[in-house]
């Protein structure tokens, strides 16, 4: 049974699922309908291009550009973290973007994989996470397709242009997941990475 997480909660992935080797990190969001027109009667959802990224850290630090897996670099050099492609609108049911992580093969020098989502060209498009609803991150056992845990982001993220959804990290030879849900005003993936220098 999937564990529903609250902000700040942590769960062991490997303890909950014996023999777990590969996970799918599923991320989803919808553009919230905005009122338009003279009296605000017309409602429509804007096209918001959110981009999921995995940032791989060594001893909690970001050390190299090629440790970022995103739409511009779909596979980590180790072959253990793979982005499944860019969704430009967030429309449709289920996961909007997925990142597959082979936990059993992630090189030992990496202790943490931070999962973030930012809005592409947020400042230029005057878009922010207050215009997004139903955002979530979930961890799925890639072998059985069983959802292990899910975190629905429910805070008000108005004015925020990027979001640290969660992190997968090693702790005493276990892999764990932490639900973070921290909004930031970072304008790019590079700005987010600088938080971990």
Tally of structural domains: 1
| Inertia-based shape | globular
CATH superfamily: sav2460 like domains
Number of helices: 3
In terms of DSSP E residues, the strand content is: over 45%
Q: Would you identify the CATH architecture?
A: Sandwich
The residue ranges in which pLDDT falls below 50 over 5 or more consecutive positions are none
Number of strand segments: 14
Specify the structural class: mainly beta
CATH fold assignment: Lipoxygenase-1
Adjacency order of strands in the biggest sheet? 1-12-11-3-9-8
Which value, in Å, is the CA radius of gyration? Answer: 17 Å
- Tell me the helix content: under 10%
Characterization of this structure:
The chain is mostly beta strands and 197 residues long. The chain has one domain (3-32, 45-194): sav2460 like domains (Lipoxygenase-1), CATH 2.60.60. The protein has 3 helices and 14 strands. The protein has helices at residues 13-16, 122-125, 189-194, and strands at residues 3-5, 10-12, 22-31, 34-36, 42-44, 50-58, 68-69, 81-83, 97-102, 110-119, 132-141, 146-152, 162-171, 174-184. The longest helix has 6 residues, at 189-194.
């Amino acid at each position: 049974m999937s564990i529903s997480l609250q902000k700040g909660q942590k769960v062991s992935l490997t303890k909950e699922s014996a023999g777990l080797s590969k996970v799918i990190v599923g991320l989803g969001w919808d553009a919230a309908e905005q009122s338009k027109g003279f009296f605000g009667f017309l409602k429509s959802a804007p096209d918001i291009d959110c981009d999921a990224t995995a940032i791989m850290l060594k001893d909690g630090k970001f050390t190299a550009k090629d440790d970022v897996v995103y739409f511009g670099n779909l596979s980590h050099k180790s072959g253990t973290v793979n982005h499944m492609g860019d969704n430009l609108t967030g429309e449709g049911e289920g996961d909007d973007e997925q990142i597959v992580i082979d936990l059993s093969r992630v090189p030992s020098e990496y202790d943490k994989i931070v999962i973030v989502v930012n809005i592409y060209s947020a400042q230029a498009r005057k878009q922010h996470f207050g215009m997004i609803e139903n955002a979530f991150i979930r961890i799925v056992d890639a072998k059985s397709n069983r959802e292990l845990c899910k975190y629905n982001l429910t805070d008000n993220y108005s004015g925020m242009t990027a979001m640290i959804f969660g992190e997968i990290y090693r702790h005493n030879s276990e892999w764990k997941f932490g639900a973070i849900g921290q909004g930031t005003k970072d304008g790019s993936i590079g700005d987010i990475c600088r938080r971990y220098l």
